[in-house]
């Protein structure tokens, strides 16, 4: 709990939000694992859901993943847990809505892959359960289920 509180305080310091009471809201969902958020002071910044990797825009199931994330977070107060940034400067976080982890929901509903380097046992279990139940992207034919990290290698910008 102390570590989570420290992470929240660091996020507020990094983003210009002054108090731990600041409320975040989603301005725009970019895809199934990243979004632009804003706090009460109006300072917008980009976050990425930690330990998940959603389909890229041109991949099968990308639009479904993005829309599902929108339904989970739009017009709702969100909490952020995390203090690291990726190479693009996005804050890597767990997003909490109504006491539930959005990261876990996205994996459990088959809307994203567990990031290949994730050490989360919970996400591994949720992905396996979604896979067995053929939820979300796991219902696609195997030929269309290309991990986003492999897709990016094949389709360099």
What does this entry look like structurally?
- This protein is of the alpha+beta class and 157 residues long.
- The chain contains 5 helices and 8 strands, in the order H-E-E-E-E-H-E-E-E-H-E-H-H.
- It has helices spanning 2-15, 62-73, 102-108, 121-132, 148-154; strands at residues 25-31, 34-38, 44-49, 52-53, 79-85, 91-97, 100-101, 113-114.
- The strands form 2 sheets. Strands 1, 2, 3, 5, 6 and 7 form a 6-stranded mixed β-sheet that branches. A two-stranded antiparallel ribbon has the order 4-8.
- Helix 3 runs parallel beside helix 4.
- It starts with a helix and ends with a helix.
Which word captures the global form?
globular
Query: What separation lies between the terminal Cα atoms?
Result: 40 Å
* Regions with little confidence, pLDDT below 50 for 5+ residues: 5-10, 18-22
Q: Number of helical runs? A: 5
Number of strands: 8
**What Rg is obtained from the alpha carbons, in whole angstroms?**
16 Å
Main beta-sheet strand count, sense and barrel state: 6 strands, mixed
Structural class: alpha+beta
Percent range of helical residues: 25-40%
How are helices and strands ordered from N to C? HEEEEHEEEHEHH
Measured by DSSP, the beta-strand proportion falls in: 15-25%
Mean of all residue-level pLDDT scores = 87
């Amino acid at each position: 709990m102390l570590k989570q509180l420290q992470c929240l305080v660091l996020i507020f310091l990094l983003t210009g939000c002054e108090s731990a009471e600041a409320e975040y809201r989603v301005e725009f969902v970019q895809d199934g694992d990243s979004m632009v958020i804003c706090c009460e002071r109006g300072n917008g910044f980009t976050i990425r859901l930690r330990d998940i990797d959603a389909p890229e825009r041109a991949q099968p199931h990308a639009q479904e993943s993005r829309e599902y994330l929108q339904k989970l977070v739009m017009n709702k107060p969100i909490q952020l847990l995390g203090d690291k940034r990726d190479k693009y400067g996005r804050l890597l976080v767990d997003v909490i809505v109504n006491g539930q982890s959005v990261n876990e929901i996205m994996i459990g509903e088959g809307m994203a892959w567990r990031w290949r380097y994730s050490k989360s046992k919970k996400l591994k279990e949720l992905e396996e359960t979604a896979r067995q139940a053929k939820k979300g992207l796991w219902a696609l034919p195997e030929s269309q289920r290309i991990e986003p990290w492999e897709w990016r290698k094949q389709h360099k910008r």
